[in-house]
Amino acid sequence: MNRIAIIASTDRGVTLGLILQKEFQKSALVSTRPSERTEVQSITSIADFLQTSFHSFDAFIFIGALGICVRSIAPYIQDKKEDPAIVNIDDHGKFAQSVLSGHIGGANELTHKIAAITGAQAVITTSSDIQNIWQLDTLANQFGWKIRTTSSLTTLISLFVNNKPTAVLLDIKDSGTTYLEKNKPDFVDFYYDYLQIDFSQYELFIAVTYKIYNSSLPTLLYHPQVLHVGMGCSRGIETHLVEESFRDQLFQHQIAIESIKSLGSIDIKYDEEAFIHLAQKLEISFFTWTADQLNTQQVKNPSETVREKLGVDSVSEASAMLSARNQDLLLEKQKITVASGKKYTLALTLDKTAQRKAMIAIIGAGPGDPELISVKGKQLLEQADLILYAGSLVPEELLTYAKPDTIIRNSASMNLEEQIELMVAYYSQGKMIVRLHSGDPSIYGAIQEQISIFEERGMDYFIVPGISAFQAAAAYLKSEFTIPEVVQTIILTRGEGNTPLPEHEKLNEMARHKATMCIFLSATISKTVQAQLLEHYPEDTPIAILYRVTWKDEEVYTGTLNELAAIIREHKLTRTVLIIVGVAIGARQNRSQLYHPEHKHIFRTGKPVKL
Protein backbone atom coordinates (compact mmCIF):
# COMPACT_ATOMS: atom_id res chain seq x y z
CA MET A 1 0.00 0.00 0.00
CA ASN A 2 1.36 3.39 -0.98
CA ARG A 3 -0.55 5.78 1.31
CA ILE A 4 -2.16 5.06 4.67
CA ALA A 5 -4.09 7.49 6.86
CA ILE A 6 -4.06 6.75 10.60
CA ILE A 7 -6.95 8.46 12.43
CA ALA A 8 -6.67 8.66 16.21
CA SER A 9 -9.71 9.69 18.25
CA THR A 10 -8.11 9.76 21.73
CA ASP A 11 -4.81 10.69 23.39
CA ARG A 12 -4.07 7.00 23.92
CA GLY A 13 -4.90 6.46 20.26
CA VAL A 14 -2.33 9.09 19.26
CA THR A 15 0.34 7.20 21.21
CA LEU A 16 -0.58 3.97 19.42
CA GLY A 17 -0.74 5.82 16.12
CA LEU A 18 2.85 7.02 16.51
CA ILE A 19 3.97 3.39 16.78
CA LEU A 20 2.04 2.43 13.65
CA GLN A 21 3.34 5.44 11.74
CA LYS A 22 6.93 4.29 12.29
CA GLU A 23 6.07 0.90 10.80
CA PHE A 24 4.12 2.28 7.83
CA GLN A 25 6.47 4.82 6.37
CA LYS A 26 4.04 6.19 3.79
CA SER A 27 1.45 7.09 6.38
CA ALA A 28 -0.11 10.24 7.78
CA LEU A 29 -1.22 10.39 11.43
CA VAL A 30 -4.17 12.75 11.98
CA SER A 31 -6.19 13.53 15.08
CA THR A 32 -8.77 15.94 16.45
CA ARG A 33 -6.83 15.84 19.74
CA PRO A 34 -4.19 18.53 20.33
CA SER A 35 -0.63 17.22 20.28
CA GLU A 36 2.84 18.70 20.55
CA ARG A 37 4.28 15.95 18.35
CA THR A 38 5.16 17.24 14.89
CA GLU A 39 4.26 13.86 13.38
CA VAL A 40 0.60 14.40 14.31
CA GLN A 41 -1.38 16.50 11.84
CA SER A 42 -4.41 18.30 13.26
CA ILE A 43 -7.88 17.97 11.70
CA THR A 44 -11.07 19.77 12.71
CA SER A 45 -13.25 16.66 12.43
CA ILE A 46 -13.05 13.12 11.06
CA ALA A 47 -16.07 13.81 8.82
CA ASP A 48 -14.42 16.84 7.19
CA PHE A 49 -11.17 14.91 6.72
CA LEU A 50 -12.87 11.94 5.05
CA GLN A 51 -14.98 14.17 2.80
CA THR A 52 -11.85 15.51 1.12
CA SER A 53 -9.49 12.53 1.56
CA PHE A 54 -11.45 9.27 1.39
CA HIS A 55 -10.13 8.41 -2.08
CA SER A 56 -6.70 9.98 -1.57
CA PHE A 57 -5.41 7.07 0.52
CA ASP A 58 -5.12 3.34 -0.13
CA ALA A 59 -6.06 2.51 3.44
CA PHE A 60 -7.39 4.04 6.65
CA ILE A 61 -6.55 2.81 10.14
CA PHE A 62 -9.06 4.05 12.69
CA ILE A 63 -7.89 4.00 16.32
CA GLY A 64 -10.86 4.14 18.64
CA ALA A 65 -14.38 2.80 18.87
CA LEU A 66 -15.61 0.64 15.98
CA GLY A 67 -18.90 2.54 15.90
CA ILE A 68 -17.10 5.82 15.14
CA CYS A 69 -15.27 4.11 12.28
CA VAL A 70 -18.44 2.63 10.75
CA ARG A 71 -20.49 5.83 11.00
CA SER A 72 -17.63 7.90 9.61
CA ILE A 73 -17.08 5.85 6.46
CA ALA A 74 -20.74 5.04 5.72
CA PRO A 75 -21.43 8.08 3.45
CA TYR A 76 -18.44 7.34 1.23
CA ILE A 77 -18.65 3.58 0.59
CA GLN A 78 -19.22 2.85 -3.11
CA ASP A 79 -17.72 -0.38 -4.48
CA LYS A 80 -15.34 -3.01 -3.06
CA LYS A 81 -13.21 -2.74 -6.19
CA GLU A 82 -12.57 0.95 -5.54
CA ASP A 83 -13.07 1.53 -1.81
CA PRO A 84 -9.90 1.84 0.29
CA ALA A 85 -9.04 -0.72 2.92
CA ILE A 86 -10.49 0.12 6.33
CA VAL A 87 -9.15 -1.33 9.58
CA ASN A 88 -10.20 -0.41 13.12
CA ILE A 89 -8.16 -0.97 16.27
CA ASP A 90 -9.20 0.03 19.78
CA ASP A 91 -6.94 2.54 21.54
CA HIS A 92 -5.75 -0.11 24.02
CA GLY A 93 -4.45 -2.21 21.12
CA LYS A 94 -6.44 -5.32 22.02
CA PHE A 95 -8.43 -5.97 18.83
CA ALA A 96 -7.64 -5.07 15.20
CA GLN A 97 -10.61 -5.65 12.90
CA SER A 98 -10.86 -5.67 9.12
CA VAL A 99 -13.87 -3.48 8.31
CA LEU A 100 -13.96 -2.86 4.55
CA SER A 101 -12.26 -4.14 1.37
CA GLY A 102 -10.81 -7.16 3.11
CA HIS A 103 -9.52 -8.99 0.05
CA ILE A 104 -9.29 -6.69 -2.95
CA GLY A 105 -8.41 -3.62 -0.92
CA GLY A 106 -6.01 -5.54 1.32
CA ALA A 107 -7.67 -4.78 4.68
CA ASN A 108 -7.31 -8.38 5.86
CA GLU A 109 -3.59 -8.41 5.20
CA LEU A 110 -3.22 -4.98 6.80
CA THR A 111 -5.12 -6.21 9.86
CA HIS A 112 -2.65 -9.04 10.35
CA LYS A 113 0.27 -6.61 10.05
CA ILE A 114 -1.26 -4.26 12.63
CA ALA A 115 -1.87 -7.20 14.97
CA ALA A 116 1.75 -8.28 14.63
CA ILE A 117 2.99 -4.76 15.40
CA THR A 118 0.75 -4.10 18.39
CA GLY A 119 0.12 -7.57 19.80
CA ALA A 120 -3.59 -7.17 19.12
CA GLN A 121 -5.97 -10.00 18.23
CA ALA A 122 -6.69 -9.89 14.50
CA VAL A 123 -10.42 -10.07 13.82
CA ILE A 124 -11.20 -11.34 10.30
CA THR A 125 -14.72 -12.34 9.35
CA THR A 126 -14.23 -13.26 5.69
CA SER A 127 -15.21 -16.92 5.17
CA SER A 128 -12.22 -17.93 3.08
CA ASP A 129 -9.83 -16.45 5.66
CA ILE A 130 -11.57 -18.19 8.54
CA GLN A 131 -11.36 -21.51 6.70
CA ASN A 132 -7.83 -20.75 5.49
CA ILE A 133 -8.73 -21.53 1.89
CA TRP A 134 -7.92 -19.73 -1.35
CA GLN A 135 -9.26 -16.21 -1.83
CA LEU A 136 -10.55 -16.52 -5.37
CA ASP A 137 -11.05 -12.78 -5.83
CA THR A 138 -7.42 -11.90 -5.07
CA LEU A 139 -5.52 -14.79 -6.70
CA ALA A 140 -5.43 -13.10 -10.10
CA ASN A 141 -3.91 -9.91 -8.74
CA GLN A 142 -1.55 -11.85 -6.49
CA PHE A 143 -0.06 -13.93 -9.31
CA GLY A 144 -0.55 -11.70 -12.35
CA TRP A 145 -3.39 -13.72 -13.87
CA LYS A 146 -6.43 -12.45 -15.74
CA ILE A 147 -9.94 -13.72 -15.04
CA ARG A 148 -12.68 -15.14 -17.28
CA THR A 149 -15.91 -16.45 -15.72
CA THR A 150 -19.19 -18.02 -16.85
CA SER A 151 -21.05 -16.70 -13.80
CA SER A 152 -20.62 -13.76 -11.47
CA LEU A 153 -17.48 -14.00 -9.37
CA THR A 154 -19.65 -13.67 -6.28
CA THR A 155 -21.57 -16.82 -7.28
CA LEU A 156 -18.35 -18.76 -7.84
CA ILE A 157 -16.87 -17.60 -4.54
CA SER A 158 -20.08 -18.65 -2.77
CA LEU A 159 -19.77 -22.18 -4.16
CA PHE A 160 -16.14 -22.32 -3.11
CA VAL A 161 -16.48 -21.01 0.45
CA ASN A 162 -19.40 -23.42 0.93
CA ASN A 163 -16.95 -26.21 0.11
CA LYS A 164 -18.74 -27.53 -2.97
CA PRO A 165 -16.78 -30.27 -4.79
CA THR A 166 -14.31 -28.43 -7.05
CA ALA A 167 -12.21 -29.64 -9.95
CA VAL A 168 -9.03 -27.62 -10.55
CA LEU A 169 -7.14 -27.98 -13.82
CA LEU A 170 -3.52 -26.81 -14.01
CA ASP A 171 -2.32 -26.49 -17.61
CA ILE A 172 0.78 -24.52 -16.68
CA LYS A 173 3.09 -24.11 -13.73
CA ASP A 174 4.14 -20.90 -12.02
CA SER A 175 4.38 -19.56 -8.49
CA GLY A 176 0.59 -19.38 -8.37
CA THR A 177 -0.01 -23.02 -9.24
CA THR A 178 2.69 -24.03 -6.75
CA TYR A 179 0.79 -22.07 -4.10
CA LEU A 180 -2.48 -23.81 -5.01
CA GLU A 181 -0.89 -27.26 -4.87
CA LYS A 182 0.70 -26.54 -1.50
CA ASN A 183 -2.54 -25.25 0.01
CA LYS A 184 -5.14 -27.69 -1.36
CA PRO A 185 -8.52 -27.66 0.42
CA ASP A 186 -10.05 -31.05 1.16
CA PHE A 187 -12.97 -30.52 -1.25
CA VAL A 188 -10.65 -29.80 -4.22
CA ASP A 189 -9.23 -32.32 -6.70
CA PHE A 190 -6.35 -31.41 -9.03
CA TYR A 191 -6.14 -32.44 -12.68
CA TYR A 192 -3.48 -31.95 -15.31
CA ASP A 193 -5.53 -33.21 -18.28
CA TYR A 194 -8.96 -31.79 -19.09
CA LEU A 195 -10.15 -35.09 -20.57
CA GLN A 196 -9.63 -36.90 -17.26
CA ILE A 197 -12.19 -34.78 -15.39
CA ASP A 198 -15.57 -36.37 -14.64
CA PHE A 199 -17.62 -33.18 -14.36
CA SER A 200 -20.62 -35.06 -12.95
CA GLN A 201 -18.68 -35.32 -9.69
CA TYR A 202 -18.22 -31.58 -9.22
CA GLU A 203 -20.14 -28.34 -8.79
CA LEU A 204 -17.35 -25.86 -9.64
CA PHE A 205 -14.59 -25.87 -12.24
CA ILE A 206 -11.44 -23.76 -11.88
CA ALA A 207 -8.52 -23.75 -14.31
CA VAL A 208 -5.17 -22.00 -14.54
CA THR A 209 -4.75 -22.15 -18.26
CA TYR A 210 -4.03 -20.46 -21.58
CA LYS A 211 -7.02 -22.25 -23.13
CA ILE A 212 -10.73 -21.50 -23.26
CA TYR A 213 -12.89 -24.27 -21.82
CA ASN A 214 -16.64 -24.57 -22.19
CA SER A 215 -17.56 -26.62 -19.16
CA SER A 216 -21.12 -27.39 -18.13
CA LEU A 217 -20.25 -26.23 -14.61
CA PRO A 218 -19.90 -22.71 -13.22
CA THR A 219 -16.39 -21.94 -14.38
CA LEU A 220 -13.55 -19.68 -13.26
CA LEU A 221 -10.60 -19.47 -15.64
CA TYR A 222 -7.34 -17.83 -14.57
CA HIS A 223 -5.26 -16.84 -17.59
CA PRO A 224 -1.54 -16.27 -16.91
CA GLN A 225 0.48 -14.45 -19.57
CA VAL A 226 2.57 -17.37 -20.82
CA LEU A 227 2.16 -17.43 -24.61
CA HIS A 228 4.49 -15.93 -27.18
CA VAL A 229 3.19 -15.29 -30.68
CA GLY A 230 5.45 -15.03 -33.72
CA MET A 231 4.17 -13.23 -36.82
CA GLY A 232 5.20 -12.40 -40.35
CA CYS A 233 3.18 -10.40 -42.86
CA SER A 234 2.86 -8.62 -46.16
CA ARG A 235 4.25 -5.10 -45.93
CA GLY A 236 1.56 -2.54 -45.10
CA ILE A 237 -1.11 -5.06 -44.15
CA GLU A 238 -4.18 -3.32 -42.73
CA THR A 239 -4.09 -2.83 -38.95
CA HIS A 240 -7.77 -3.45 -38.26
CA LEU A 241 -7.87 -6.55 -40.46
CA VAL A 242 -4.91 -8.12 -38.67
CA GLU A 243 -6.39 -7.47 -35.25
CA GLU A 244 -9.80 -8.85 -36.22
CA SER A 245 -8.30 -11.91 -37.87
CA PHE A 246 -5.84 -12.51 -35.01
CA ARG A 247 -8.63 -12.54 -32.45
CA ASP A 248 -10.63 -14.90 -34.65
CA GLN A 249 -7.68 -17.29 -35.02
CA LEU A 250 -7.22 -17.52 -31.27
CA PHE A 251 -10.94 -18.10 -30.77
CA GLN A 252 -10.94 -20.89 -33.38
CA HIS A 253 -8.11 -22.63 -31.57
CA GLN A 254 -9.69 -21.95 -28.15
CA ILE A 255 -6.67 -19.93 -27.02
CA ALA A 256 -7.21 -17.18 -24.45
CA ILE A 257 -6.04 -13.84 -25.80
CA GLU A 258 -5.46 -12.79 -22.18
CA SER A 259 -2.56 -15.27 -22.04
CA ILE A 260 -0.54 -13.65 -24.81
CA LYS A 261 2.69 -12.27 -23.35
CA SER A 262 4.63 -11.02 -26.38
CA LEU A 263 4.62 -10.62 -30.14
CA GLY A 264 7.78 -11.28 -32.13
CA SER A 265 8.87 -10.86 -35.74
CA ILE A 266 11.94 -10.26 -37.92
CA ASP A 267 13.81 -7.00 -37.40
CA ILE A 268 12.79 -5.48 -40.75
CA LYS A 269 9.24 -5.44 -39.37
CA TYR A 270 10.20 -3.16 -36.46
CA ASP A 271 7.97 -0.39 -37.87
CA GLU A 272 5.07 -2.54 -39.14
CA GLU A 273 2.00 -0.60 -38.02
CA ALA A 274 -0.22 -3.67 -37.75
CA PHE A 275 2.17 -5.33 -35.29
CA ILE A 276 2.79 -2.17 -33.27
CA HIS A 277 -0.96 -1.55 -33.01
CA LEU A 278 -1.73 -5.14 -31.99
CA ALA A 279 0.93 -5.13 -29.27
CA GLN A 280 -0.34 -1.82 -27.92
CA LYS A 281 -3.94 -2.99 -27.97
CA LEU A 282 -3.07 -6.17 -26.05
CA GLU A 283 -0.64 -4.29 -23.78
CA ILE A 284 2.19 -6.73 -24.56
CA SER A 285 5.82 -6.42 -25.65
CA PHE A 286 6.79 -6.37 -29.35
CA PHE A 287 10.18 -7.98 -30.06
CA THR A 288 12.11 -8.23 -33.30
CA TRP A 289 14.88 -10.69 -34.09
CA THR A 290 17.72 -10.58 -36.59
CA ALA A 291 17.98 -13.07 -39.44
CA ASP A 292 20.97 -14.70 -37.75
CA GLN A 293 18.99 -15.16 -34.54
CA LEU A 294 15.99 -16.61 -36.37
CA ASN A 295 18.21 -19.05 -38.24
CA THR A 296 19.37 -20.61 -34.95
CA GLN A 297 15.96 -22.27 -34.64
CA GLN A 298 15.03 -25.62 -36.22
CA VAL A 299 11.46 -25.01 -37.39
CA LYS A 300 8.80 -27.48 -38.49
CA ASN A 301 7.54 -25.51 -41.46
CA PRO A 302 10.42 -23.75 -43.27
CA SER A 303 9.54 -21.60 -46.28
CA GLU A 304 11.57 -21.35 -49.47
CA THR A 305 9.81 -18.10 -50.35
CA VAL A 306 10.77 -16.52 -47.05
CA ARG A 307 14.32 -17.86 -47.47
CA GLU A 308 14.62 -16.17 -50.88
CA LYS A 309 13.17 -12.83 -49.73
CA LEU A 310 14.53 -12.46 -46.20
CA GLY A 311 17.33 -15.00 -45.87
CA VAL A 312 15.57 -17.01 -43.15
CA ASP A 313 13.68 -20.30 -43.09
CA SER A 314 10.97 -18.94 -40.83
CA VAL A 315 9.70 -15.75 -39.23
CA SER A 316 6.60 -16.69 -37.23
CA GLU A 317 7.69 -20.06 -35.82
CA ALA A 318 11.29 -19.01 -35.16
CA SER A 319 10.20 -15.73 -33.50
CA ALA A 320 7.78 -17.53 -31.20
CA MET A 321 10.41 -20.11 -30.26
CA LEU A 322 13.04 -17.48 -29.49
CA SER A 323 10.69 -15.37 -27.39
CA ALA A 324 9.50 -18.39 -25.39
CA ARG A 325 12.95 -20.05 -25.22
CA ASN A 326 11.04 -23.17 -26.15
CA GLN A 327 11.35 -25.37 -29.23
CA ASP A 328 7.94 -26.98 -28.79
CA LEU A 329 5.29 -25.15 -30.80
CA LEU A 330 1.84 -24.93 -29.29
CA LEU A 331 0.41 -23.77 -32.61
CA GLU A 332 2.39 -24.40 -35.80
CA LYS A 333 2.54 -21.76 -38.52
CA GLN A 334 -0.87 -20.62 -39.71
CA LYS A 335 -1.14 -18.89 -43.10
CA ILE A 336 -3.98 -16.39 -43.16
CA THR A 337 -5.28 -14.16 -45.93
CA VAL A 338 -7.29 -11.12 -44.83
CA ALA A 339 -10.12 -9.43 -46.74
CA SER A 340 -7.77 -7.15 -48.68
CA GLY A 341 -5.87 -10.15 -50.06
CA LYS A 342 -2.75 -9.49 -48.01
CA LYS A 343 -1.32 -12.28 -45.88
CA TYR A 344 0.21 -12.90 -42.52
CA THR A 345 1.47 -15.92 -40.61
CA LEU A 346 1.36 -16.68 -36.91
CA ALA A 347 2.66 -19.35 -34.55
CA LEU A 348 2.35 -19.79 -30.80
CA THR A 349 4.70 -21.19 -28.17
CA LEU A 350 4.29 -21.67 -24.43
CA ASP A 351 6.90 -19.94 -22.28
CA LYS A 352 9.53 -22.46 -21.25
CA THR A 353 9.21 -21.55 -17.58
CA ALA A 354 5.47 -22.35 -17.62
CA GLN A 355 5.75 -25.88 -19.03
CA ARG A 356 4.82 -28.83 -16.87
CA LYS A 357 7.73 -31.10 -17.68
CA ALA A 358 10.76 -32.78 -16.17
CA MET A 359 13.05 -30.56 -14.16
CA ILE A 360 16.29 -30.84 -12.22
CA ALA A 361 16.69 -28.79 -9.06
CA ILE A 362 20.24 -28.37 -7.77
CA ILE A 363 19.66 -27.58 -4.11
CA GLY A 364 21.95 -26.37 -1.37
CA ALA A 365 21.25 -28.46 1.74
CA GLY A 366 22.88 -25.97 4.07
CA PRO A 367 25.80 -26.56 6.45
CA GLY A 368 24.41 -29.62 8.25
CA ASP A 369 21.51 -28.74 10.52
CA PRO A 370 18.48 -30.06 8.57
CA GLU A 371 16.46 -27.04 9.68
CA LEU A 372 18.86 -24.71 7.87
CA ILE A 373 17.74 -25.74 4.39
CA SER A 374 15.74 -23.04 2.61
CA VAL A 375 11.95 -23.22 2.60
CA LYS A 376 12.04 -23.63 -1.19
CA GLY A 377 14.60 -26.42 -0.91
CA LYS A 378 12.44 -28.29 1.59
CA GLN A 379 9.37 -27.90 -0.62
CA LEU A 380 11.22 -29.33 -3.61
CA LEU A 381 12.44 -32.30 -1.57
CA GLU A 382 8.80 -32.97 -0.70
CA GLN A 383 7.89 -32.99 -4.41
CA ALA A 384 10.87 -34.91 -5.78
CA ASP A 385 10.60 -38.25 -7.58
CA LEU A 386 14.38 -38.82 -7.41
CA ILE A 387 16.79 -37.42 -4.82
CA LEU A 388 20.49 -37.83 -5.50
CA TYR A 389 22.36 -36.58 -2.44
CA ALA A 390 26.01 -35.98 -1.67
CA GLY A 391 26.77 -38.78 0.77
CA SER A 392 28.23 -37.95 4.16
CA LEU A 393 28.16 -34.22 3.38
CA VAL A 394 24.35 -34.05 3.61
CA PRO A 395 22.47 -35.06 6.79
CA GLU A 396 20.14 -37.98 6.22
CA GLU A 397 17.44 -36.23 8.30
CA LEU A 398 16.75 -34.09 5.23
CA LEU A 399 15.69 -37.19 3.33
CA THR A 400 12.72 -37.66 5.66
CA TYR A 401 11.03 -34.79 3.79
CA ALA A 402 10.72 -37.03 0.71
CA LYS A 403 7.49 -38.67 -0.42
CA PRO A 404 7.08 -42.37 0.47
CA ASP A 405 7.65 -43.45 -3.14
CA THR A 406 10.65 -41.20 -3.86
CA ILE A 407 13.82 -42.94 -5.03
CA ILE A 408 16.77 -41.80 -2.88
CA ARG A 409 20.35 -42.52 -3.93
CA ASN A 410 23.71 -41.64 -2.39
CA SER A 411 26.05 -40.18 -5.02
CA ALA A 412 29.19 -40.86 -2.96
CA SER A 413 29.56 -44.33 -4.49
CA MET A 414 28.78 -43.17 -8.04
CA ASN A 415 30.95 -41.54 -10.67
CA LEU A 416 29.63 -38.60 -12.71
CA GLU A 417 28.57 -40.78 -15.63
CA GLU A 418 26.51 -43.05 -13.38
CA GLN A 419 24.83 -40.05 -11.77
CA ILE A 420 23.92 -38.56 -15.15
CA GLU A 421 22.61 -41.90 -16.41
CA LEU A 422 20.26 -42.14 -13.44
CA MET A 423 19.05 -38.54 -13.80
CA VAL A 424 18.51 -38.94 -17.55
CA ALA A 425 16.35 -42.02 -16.92
CA TYR A 426 14.03 -40.10 -14.61
CA TYR A 427 14.13 -36.94 -16.72
CA SER A 428 12.90 -38.87 -19.76
CA GLN A 429 9.82 -39.87 -17.72
CA GLY A 430 8.99 -36.24 -16.94
CA LYS A 431 9.99 -36.61 -13.27
CA MET A 432 11.11 -34.06 -10.70
CA ILE A 433 14.78 -34.60 -9.82
CA VAL A 434 16.64 -33.09 -6.89
CA ARG A 435 20.43 -33.03 -6.83
CA LEU A 436 21.18 -32.27 -3.19
CA HIS A 437 24.56 -30.70 -2.40
CA SER A 438 26.00 -29.58 0.92
CA GLY A 439 26.16 -25.92 1.91
CA ASP A 440 25.60 -23.68 -1.07
CA PRO A 441 26.06 -25.56 -4.35
CA SER A 442 27.95 -22.66 -5.94
CA ILE A 443 30.80 -22.90 -3.40
CA TYR A 444 32.97 -25.99 -3.95
CA GLY A 445 29.85 -27.85 -5.03
CA ALA A 446 31.25 -29.54 -8.18
CA ILE A 447 28.09 -28.58 -10.07
CA GLN A 448 29.74 -26.97 -13.12
CA GLU A 449 30.50 -30.32 -14.73
CA GLN A 450 26.90 -31.45 -14.23
CA ILE A 451 25.49 -28.21 -15.61
CA SER A 452 27.60 -28.58 -18.77
CA ILE A 453 26.06 -31.99 -19.43
CA PHE A 454 22.53 -30.77 -18.68
CA GLU A 455 22.94 -27.96 -21.20
CA GLU A 456 24.50 -30.21 -23.84
CA ARG A 457 21.51 -32.54 -23.55
CA GLY A 458 18.91 -29.77 -23.40
CA MET A 459 17.81 -30.72 -19.87
CA ASP A 460 16.11 -27.99 -17.85
CA TYR A 461 17.56 -27.22 -14.44
CA PHE A 462 17.70 -24.49 -11.84
CA ILE A 463 19.68 -23.80 -8.68
CA VAL A 464 18.33 -23.18 -5.19
CA PRO A 465 20.97 -21.52 -2.99
CA GLY A 466 21.82 -22.78 0.47
CA ILE A 467 23.46 -21.47 3.62
CA SER A 468 27.21 -21.94 3.34
CA ALA A 469 29.39 -23.22 6.17
CA PHE A 470 31.09 -19.82 6.41
CA GLN A 471 27.72 -18.23 7.20
CA ALA A 472 26.98 -20.92 9.77
CA ALA A 473 30.42 -20.27 11.24
CA ALA A 474 29.63 -16.56 11.67
CA ALA A 475 26.39 -17.49 13.43
CA TYR A 476 28.14 -19.94 15.77
CA LEU A 477 30.86 -17.40 16.59
CA LYS A 478 28.21 -14.68 17.06
CA SER A 479 30.30 -12.48 14.81
CA GLU A 480 29.78 -10.07 11.97
CA PHE A 481 32.46 -10.80 9.40
CA THR A 482 32.31 -7.24 8.00
CA ILE A 483 32.91 -4.50 10.56
CA PRO A 484 32.74 -0.78 9.67
CA GLU A 485 36.18 0.81 9.33
CA VAL A 486 37.91 -2.45 10.37
CA VAL A 487 37.27 -5.11 7.71
CA GLN A 488 34.80 -4.93 4.85
CA THR A 489 35.85 -7.92 2.75
CA ILE A 490 35.33 -11.67 3.06
CA ILE A 491 37.54 -14.03 1.07
CA LEU A 492 36.33 -17.57 0.42
CA THR A 493 39.22 -19.76 -0.68
CA ARG A 494 41.20 -22.95 -0.10
CA GLY A 495 44.82 -23.89 0.36
CA GLU A 496 46.88 -25.41 -2.42
CA GLY A 497 46.72 -29.18 -2.03
CA ASN A 498 46.28 -31.78 -4.76
CA THR A 499 44.32 -29.24 -6.78
CA PRO A 500 46.61 -26.30 -7.63
CA LEU A 501 45.42 -22.72 -7.16
CA PRO A 502 45.39 -20.22 -10.05
CA GLU A 503 48.58 -18.16 -10.09
CA HIS A 504 46.76 -14.96 -9.14
CA GLU A 505 44.99 -16.61 -6.16
CA LYS A 506 47.91 -17.74 -4.02
CA LEU A 507 47.01 -17.80 -0.35
CA ASN A 508 49.93 -15.65 0.81
CA GLU A 509 49.04 -12.99 -1.78
CA MET A 510 45.40 -12.84 -0.68
CA ALA A 511 46.57 -12.59 2.93
CA ARG A 512 47.92 -9.11 2.12
CA HIS A 513 44.35 -7.78 2.36
CA LYS A 514 43.96 -8.96 5.98
CA ALA A 515 40.30 -9.57 5.19
CA THR A 516 38.11 -12.07 7.00
CA MET A 517 39.37 -15.24 5.33
CA CYS A 518 37.29 -18.41 5.17
CA ILE A 519 39.45 -21.34 4.12
CA PHE A 520 37.79 -24.57 2.97
CA LEU A 521 39.21 -28.05 2.31
CA SER A 522 42.62 -27.35 3.85
CA ALA A 523 42.88 -29.18 7.19
CA THR A 524 45.46 -31.66 5.89
CA ILE A 525 47.81 -28.86 4.80
CA SER A 526 47.26 -26.64 7.84
CA LYS A 527 50.99 -26.16 8.52
CA THR A 528 51.51 -24.75 5.02
CA VAL A 529 48.39 -22.61 5.27
CA GLN A 530 49.54 -21.18 8.60
CA ALA A 531 52.96 -20.28 7.21
CA GLN A 532 51.47 -18.52 4.20
CA LEU A 533 49.02 -16.52 6.29
CA LEU A 534 51.71 -15.44 8.76
CA GLU A 535 53.48 -13.62 5.95
CA HIS A 536 50.92 -10.83 6.39
CA TYR A 537 48.59 -11.52 9.34
CA PRO A 538 49.99 -10.88 12.87
CA GLU A 539 50.61 -13.99 14.98
CA ASP A 540 47.85 -13.04 17.42
CA THR A 541 45.17 -12.76 14.73
CA PRO A 542 42.05 -14.59 15.99
CA ILE A 543 41.18 -17.89 14.32
CA ALA A 544 38.33 -20.36 14.54
CA ILE A 545 38.47 -23.97 13.37
CA LEU A 546 35.07 -25.53 12.83
CA TYR A 547 34.48 -29.22 12.20
CA ARG A 548 31.01 -30.10 10.80
CA VAL A 549 29.55 -26.86 12.09
CA THR A 550 25.79 -27.13 12.95
CA TRP A 551 25.91 -30.95 12.86
CA LYS A 552 25.12 -32.86 16.07
CA ASP A 553 28.80 -33.81 16.41
CA GLU A 554 30.21 -30.35 15.62
CA GLU A 555 33.53 -29.31 17.14
CA VAL A 556 34.71 -25.71 17.28
CA TYR A 557 38.10 -24.49 18.48
CA THR A 558 39.35 -20.92 18.74
CA GLY A 559 42.81 -19.49 19.19
CA THR A 560 45.36 -17.36 17.39
CA LEU A 561 47.01 -17.80 14.03
CA ASN A 562 50.28 -19.10 15.44
CA GLU A 563 48.30 -21.98 17.01
CA LEU A 564 46.39 -23.03 13.87
CA ALA A 565 48.36 -26.12 12.82
CA ALA A 566 48.79 -27.31 16.40
CA ILE A 567 45.05 -27.16 17.11
CA ILE A 568 44.22 -29.16 13.99
CA ARG A 569 46.94 -31.73 14.74
CA GLU A 570 45.96 -32.08 18.41
CA HIS A 571 42.31 -32.81 17.59
CA LYS A 572 43.11 -34.99 14.56
CA LEU A 573 40.96 -33.00 12.17
CA THR A 574 41.32 -34.02 8.53
CA ARG A 575 38.09 -33.31 6.62
CA THR A 576 34.84 -31.30 6.75
CA VAL A 577 36.81 -28.50 8.40
CA LEU A 578 36.45 -24.75 7.87
CA ILE A 579 39.16 -22.32 9.02
CA ILE A 580 38.22 -18.70 9.73
CA VAL A 581 40.97 -16.08 10.12
CA GLY A 582 40.57 -12.39 10.96
CA VAL A 583 39.99 -9.71 13.55
CA ALA A 584 36.21 -9.87 12.94
CA ILE A 585 35.99 -13.04 15.06
CA GLY A 586 34.33 -12.03 18.30
CA ALA A 587 34.81 -8.30 17.62
CA ARG A 588 32.30 -5.94 19.23
CA GLN A 589 33.54 -2.47 18.29
CA ASN A 590 32.52 0.17 15.72
CA ARG A 591 28.90 1.18 15.27
CA SER A 592 27.23 1.07 11.86
CA GLN A 593 25.63 4.27 10.57
CA LEU A 594 22.57 2.34 9.36
CA TYR A 595 20.62 2.69 12.61
CA HIS A 596 22.19 5.88 13.90
CA PRO A 597 19.42 8.29 14.99
CA GLU A 598 20.82 11.08 12.81
CA HIS A 599 21.09 8.90 9.71
CA LYS A 600 18.13 9.20 7.30
CA HIS A 601 17.29 6.91 4.41
CA ILE A 602 14.30 6.06 2.22
CA PHE A 603 12.68 3.98 4.96
CA ARG A 604 13.36 6.48 7.73
CA THR A 605 13.09 9.97 6.27
CA GLY A 606 11.73 11.68 9.36
CA LYS A 607 9.21 13.46 7.15
CA PRO A 608 5.42 12.96 7.59
CA VAL A 609 3.21 12.18 4.59
CA LYS A 610 1.48 15.32 3.40
CA LEU A 611 -2.30 15.37 3.37
From TrEMBL:
CDD domains linked to this entry: Precorrin-4_C11-MT (cd11641)
Record domain CobE/GbiG C-terminal: where: 227-348
Domain Cobalamin synthesis G N-terminal: 49-129
EC number: 2.1.1.133
Database matches in Pfam families: CbiG_C, CbiG_mid, CbiG_N, TP_methylase
Statement: the UniProt record of this protein carries the keyword Methyltransferase: yes
Residue ranges of every copy of the Tetrapyrrole methylase domain listed in the record: 359-565
Source organism, top-level taxon: Bacteria
Keywords tagged on the record: Methyltransferase, S-adenosyl-L-methionine, Transferase
Any GO molecular function: precorrin-4 C11-methyltransferase activity
Ranges where the Cobalamin biosynthesis central region domain occurs: 134-224
A GO biological process held by the record: methylation
Family per similarity comment: Belongs to the precorrin methyltransferase family.
NCBIfam families: cobM_cbiF
UniProt protein name: Precorrin-4 C(11)-methyltransferase
Gene: cobM
